[in-house]
Amino acid sequence: MAQRQTASYLNERFAAAGLRPLTRFGQNFLIDLNLLDLIARSAEMRPDDVILEVGTGMGSLTTRLAEAAGAVVTVEIDDNLADLSQDELQQYPNVKQLHCDALKNKHTLAPELMDSVREGLSRLGEKARFMLVANLPYNIATPLISNLLAGDPPPDRMVVTIQKEMADRIIATPGSKDYGALSVWVQAQCRAEVVRVMSPKVFWPQPKVESAILRIDLQPQRRGAIADLKFFHQTVRALFFHRRKLLRSVTCSAFKGRLSKAEVDQTLEQAGYSGSERTEQLTVEQIITLTEHLRQAVTK
Ligand code: SAM
């Protein structure tokens, strides 16, 4: 039976253990059971899927994942919650609990996460898929999603609860204030849609901002068409670093020491730009093509 995580349940469990939810770990627990079910349902899990959950908390989402998927790897940073959730989860033999920080550093996942995911994938066979399904701690949501998309294998799907503002940035379109490196990095490889916007009231304790459930589906052909993912990721970040500067100027800064100004001008011209455009006006496709021109220019 999936756990019934409500405000009174959490209040009692925390009080009995002498604990308080920690803001620094983004401990806002989802107390609307329908929304916990919606997250699990939106992932459309199969019995041969391997699910990574970041932030076990009290295990309320974990139990739902364990019931639908072949294997769950769940990670929790907080010592007390790791202990408490162990009691909840011991009846699920397909759940592997890791007790560590999900990130080794800003740009790197903790290696044991993907080691456990790979182990699950090889055990569950050729058709096994990898997904991230989680009510994410907000302070690590961006590096986590970005790093997973740079990894091998990337998740086939991600269904995550994040700040609405971050969901807006991921799905943003060219020219809007939210459009930036994160939008391009995700949309260049995936299709992303907001499943539900959620009021702070559905969490205990309540956060200050709205949240959203976002579903991100990998598009393997799109990802495969990017010649060098690492170069693409770095270039996209550099091109958006000074949002208001013109394309010629941001490209010169981004490739200082690697391309002369004349080479930048020539590459932009070949790609069809005068240099007086702004990165934020370019579509995802245009940025993919421009990055490929720049890659060829620096590797010449
Ligand atoms: N999954 C639970 C739920 O839905 O109620 C808890 C979600 S809560 C938003 C986020 C959880 O992530 C907390 O339990 C917190 O302690 C944990 N956490 C925060 N930072 C973490 C990190 N860097 N690595 C692993 N877990 C982390």
Report the CATH architecture of the largest domain.
3-Layer(aba) Sandwich
Percentage of β-strand residues: 15-25%
- Count of folded domains: 2
Question: In CATH's first tier, which class of the largest domain applies?
Answer: Alpha Beta
Helix-and-strand structural type: alpha/beta
Count of extended strands: 11
- SSE order: HEHEHEHEEEHEHEHHEEEHHHHH
Overall radius of gyration: 21 Å
Which oligomeric form is depicted?
single chain
- Residue windows where pLDDT falls under 50 for at least 5 positions: none
Ions, cofactors and other bound molecules: S-adenosylmethionine
Indicate the mean pLDDT: 96
How is the main sheet built? 7 strands, mixed
What would you give as the CATH superfamily of the largest domain? Vaccinia Virus protein VP39
Shape: elongated
Distance between the amino and carboxyl termini: 60 Å
Q: What is the number of helices? A: 13
Lateral strand order in the biggest sheet:
4-3-2-7-8-11-9
